[in-house]
Amino acid sequence: MRGKPSSDQILQALTPAGNADAPAAPAPGVRRRGLSLNSSEEAAAPAEPAAAAPAPAPATMAAAAASANTAPRPVVAAAPVQQRAQRALDLDIQFQFNSDQLTNDGKDVLDQLAAALKSQQLAAANLVILEGHADAKGSANYNQALSLKRAQSARSYLATRHGIAGAKLRAVGKGSSEPADPNNPEDEVNRRVRVIVDM
User: Fold this and answer.
1) In this structure, are residues 176 and 185 in contact, taking their beta carbons and an 8 Å threshold?
2) Which residue among 1, 20, 60, 171 is least enclosed by CB atoms within 10 Å?
3) Strand order in 127-133's β-sheet?
């Protein structure tokens, strides 16, 4: 997201459409990829007729009656599956040239990000990853170190200026390894901070 987005724009990009606390229901007739147990489609599907079982022999009937008197095995309930969702957004957070010092514009963007992270929809996030990215100018080692320092600078600003728990913020340096525009690796569009919210 280029420029200086508002906290509402950041919030909209980092939360699912509609109710952020629950996944949106699929439209009627739309099939989603994934696994489902006891889905409505399965419940509505007509049952296939079962093949007729052969009549049991008398000896088999006696064995079945004896086994019916044994204690039933305990049923162990399956642990609920915890669904975690991640949303990501590239922000144009500006720093001084060849430095990890935030510009005023960079601070403005982080102020808006902080407001979004404190919102009701995102306050319960487990983790917020701040990925620093660089363009391909300079050596790979230099870009890696600078991108990490810039991510750490953004993390420090959110924690000290806005009181967001440091344990919830993780800074990562990606250098120039994941350009936003692979066809133009030296373009300034590749210099960015990617925000990943793990709900």
Assistant:
1) yes
2) 60
3) 86-91, 192-198, 127-133, 169-175
Q: What is the pLDDT of residues 177-193, one digit of tens each?
A: 999 999 999 998 898 99
Q: Which domains does the chain have, with CATH numbers?
A: 90-198 (3.30.1330.60)
Please tell me the pTM assigned to this model: 0.64
What's the pLDDT tens digit per position in 38-64? 333 333 444 444 455 555 555 555 555
Summarize pLDDT for 106-152 with one digit per residue, the tens.
Answer: 999 999 999 999 999 998 899 999 999 999 999 999 999 999 999 99
Q: How many CA atoms lie within 13 A of 119 on its CB side?
A: 21
SS (H, E, C) 134-169: CCCCCCHHHHHHHHHHHHHHHHHHHHHHHCCCHHHE
| Pairing label, strands 86-91, 192-198 | antiparallel
CB-hemisphere CA count at 13 Å for 5? 19
